[in-house]
């Protein structure tokens, strides 16, 4: 059984001057896990990562790694690697020397050094580029060098800051599987920061959704995707129709709408994906304000008394033309019940 | 039609105006005659050799070389950390500091020279060489800070954090990853500083004293008494020295990429 509290943050408070970015965070990460820190910019995810790396001193709280308190351990003595968003390769050194940088500082020499650098480069599929300078590499190759440079140090935790954001769409897909492969083969505990839910859902074993310095939800990609706990998470993972619930009725603006359905107890809101909206029949009506063809499906934007509704249906069904009035239904059993709504 | 003829003509005139004095000095220095004159009277290298025999030139050349090299090195030792601090940290009043550091190139040399003489050299009774050294260092500092700052701005700061996370200390990161990447800027600053110091006249004029003069001041003094072509020969030699430095820098370090 692997250690589920391999890295733990205990009441960790991070601040910039007087501004508290992350208040009293508690978080446990297991050995060998691939975890995503997901949230919009300014949610504190990068701050948390910098604190784990040792680039930011916490104002209070504890960071424990593999049983050791590393809260006050300087960054250069922590067994933590970081792959920067911009890769941060050393421009004056070639690929080989970039990867050898940390090992040389550790006193690794000669054949041992050569073997470990070459092994590291081979792991990321860059065996042939050893004499090139970073400026002569593509973005994807730089990313691999940066990954190899951290991996050869055999860190206990590898942090990645927005690892795919600087790559084009095709490379992004390739690097996604590449990162997963490297992680599974090496068994290193990996935490990556991202603002892209698709990336988080596709790569992570577990996702930590953050908002305003607080953890909104922790769960597997399936849990986050299917059972968001709050309107914020729901909105973030593609539930585009999110409503507050009061006394078993949908609340929109000043009006209440009876749903004629049983809502689970303690539900503060309901959220529907566009595909979960029943289009064509139902007690509600809306006017088509926009329509777009998306391959297998067709998306509609409806103006309704409930506000704007985003719906989606099979593209083979007859088209509801622009300006026409369409009936629709919000079925409770198709909605995700939200335990929290509008802040905490 | 006219412009096609006109623009090369303008270009030619501008080039002639720029290169002309240099050509005249070289020609004058090759004169076989007794006085500084153009066109030269006959051809000979006697004045070029004469330069090396003049004791005061040898001495003042040594002083100028010492001031240029010593002053530039000192300015860099002060200027590189200053530039680093100004570009990497939020220094209160950074803009004011930059302006003050740049002031020696904004304020006319005559004023700097007079002020230093009246309020530094005289009241504190500093030695002549020390005063010259301090003044030259101050005059070179703006170049050191400006040029090195420019290279630092182009260098990402996260490479230092990357170095630290790979086990380097903060200071180690500066020497291992920052310094090698701003080497070109430092060299450019060195050349600018060297040339500035070596050609400095107004400030040196006020601060030079008995027995201790920089080369340009010595040349001025020499011309007041003797009007022979040796000054022209010396000027030509200095011009070639400058050209040589720039050529070597360009050749080995790609100087032009940094300025």
From TrEMBL, chain A:
GO terms for molecular function: ABC-type transporter activity; ATP binding; ATP hydrolysis activity. Residues 7-237 form the ABC transporter domain. Pfam families: ABC_tran. InterPro entries: AAA+_ATPase (IPR003593), ABC_SmlMolc_Importer (IPR050093), ABC_transporter-like_ATP-bd (IPR003439), ABC_transporter-like_CS (IPR017871), P-loop_NTPase (IPR027417). The keyword Cell membrane does not apply. GO terms for cellular component: ATP-binding cassette (ABC) transporter complex. Keywords: ATP-binding, Nucleotide-binding, Transport. The keyword Transport applies. It comes from the Bacteria. Belongs to the ABC transporter superfamily. This is ABC transporter ATP-binding protein. It comes from Thalassospira mesophila.
UniProtKB/TrEMBL annotation, chain B:
Its main location: membrane. Gene3D superfamilies: MetI-like. Keywords: ATP-binding, Cell inner membrane, Cell membrane, Membrane, Nucleotide-binding, Transmembrane, Transmembrane helix, Transport. One of its GO terms (cellular component) is plasma membrane. GO terms for molecular function: ATP binding. GO terms for biological process: transmembrane transport. The keyword Membrane applies. This is Spermidine/putrescine ABC transporter ATP-binding protein. The lineage of its organism: Bacteria, Pseudomonadati, Pseudomonadota, Alphaproteobacteria, Rhodospirillales. It comes from Thalassospira mesophila. It is a multi-pass membrane protein. It is found in: Cell inner membrane; Cell membrane. Belongs to the binding-protein-dependent transport system permease family. Residues 61-249 form the ABC transmembrane type-1 domain. The chain crosses the membrane at residues 61-87, 99-121, 127-145, 186-209, 229-249. It comes from the Bacteria. CDD domains: TM_PBP2 (cd06261).
């Amino acid at each position: 059984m692997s250690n589920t509290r391999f890295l733990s943050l205990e009441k960790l408070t991070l601040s910039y001057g007087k501004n508290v970015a992350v208040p009293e965070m508690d978080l446990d990460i297991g050995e060998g896990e691939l975890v995503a820190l997901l949230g919009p910019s300014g949610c504190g995810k990068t701050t948390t990562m910098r604190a784990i790396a040792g680039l930011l001193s916490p104002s209070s709280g504890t960071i424990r790694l593999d049983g050791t308190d590393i809260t006050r351990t300087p960054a250069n003595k922590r067994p933590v690697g970081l792959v920067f968003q911009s890769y941060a390769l050393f421009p004056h050194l070639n690929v080989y020397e970039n990867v050898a940088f940390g090992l040389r500082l550790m006193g690794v020499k000669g054949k041992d050094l050569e073997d470990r650098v070459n092994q590291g480069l081979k792991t990321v599929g860059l065996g042939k580029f050893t004499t090139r300078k970073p400026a002569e590499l593509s973005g994807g190759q730089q990313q691999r060098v940066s990954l190899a440079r951290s991996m050869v140090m055999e860190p206990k935790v590898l942090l990645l800051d927005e690892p795919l954001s600087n790559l084009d769409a095709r490379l992004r897909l390739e690097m996604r599987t590449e990162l997963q492969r490297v992680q599974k083969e090496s068994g290193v505990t990996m935490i990556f920061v991202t603002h892209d839910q698709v990336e988080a859902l596709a790569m992570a074993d577990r996702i930590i959704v953050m908002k305003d310095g607080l953890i909104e939800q922790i769960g597997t990609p399936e849990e986050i995707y299917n059972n968001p706990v709050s309107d914020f998470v729901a909105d973030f993972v593609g539930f585009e129709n999110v409503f507050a619930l009061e006394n078993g009725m949908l609340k929109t603006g000043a009006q209440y709408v009876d749903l004629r359905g049983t809502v689970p107890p303690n539900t503060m809101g309901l959220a529907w994906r566009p595909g979960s909206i029943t289009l064509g029949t139902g007690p509600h009506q809306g006017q088509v304000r926009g329509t777009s063809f998306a391959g297998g499906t067709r998306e509609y934007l409806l103006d309704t008394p409930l506000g704007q509704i985003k719906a989606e249906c099979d593209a083979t069904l007859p088209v509801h033309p622009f300006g026409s009035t369409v009936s629709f239904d919000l079925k409770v059993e198709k909605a995700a019940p939200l335990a929290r709504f509008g802040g905490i | 039609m006219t412009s096609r003829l006109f623009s090369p003509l303008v270009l030619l005139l501008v080039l002639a105006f720029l290169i002309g004095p240099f050509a005249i000095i070289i020609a004058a220095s090759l004169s076989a005659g007794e006085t500084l004159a153009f066109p030269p009277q006959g051809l000979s290298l006697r004045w070029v050799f004469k330069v090396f025999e003049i004791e005061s030139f040898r001495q003042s050349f040594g002083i100028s070389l010492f001031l240029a090299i010593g002053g530039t090195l000192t300015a860099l030792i002060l200027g590189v950390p200053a530039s680093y601090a100004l570009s990497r940290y939020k220094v209160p009043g950074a803009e004011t500091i930059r302006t003050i550091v740049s002031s020696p190139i904004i304020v006319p040399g005559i004023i700097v020279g007079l002020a230093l003489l009246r309020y530094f050299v005289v009241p504190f009774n500093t030695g002549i060489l020390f005063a010259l050294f301090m003044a030259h260092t101050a005059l070179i500092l703006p170049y050191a800070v400006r040029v090195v700052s420019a290279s630092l701005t182009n260098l990402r700061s996260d490479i230092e954090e990357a170095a630290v996370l790979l086990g380097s200390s903060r200071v180690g990161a500066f020497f291992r990853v920052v310094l090698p990447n701003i080497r070109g800027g430092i060299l450019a600053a060195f050349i600018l500083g060297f040339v500035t110091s070596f050609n400095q006249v107004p400030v040196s004029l006020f601060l030079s004293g008995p027995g201790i003069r920089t080369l340009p001041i010595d040349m001025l003094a020499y011309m007041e008494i003797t009007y022979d072509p040796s000054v022209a020969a010396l000027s030509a030699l200095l011009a070639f020295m400058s050209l040589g430095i720039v050529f070597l820098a360009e050749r080995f370090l790609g100087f032009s990429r940094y300025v």
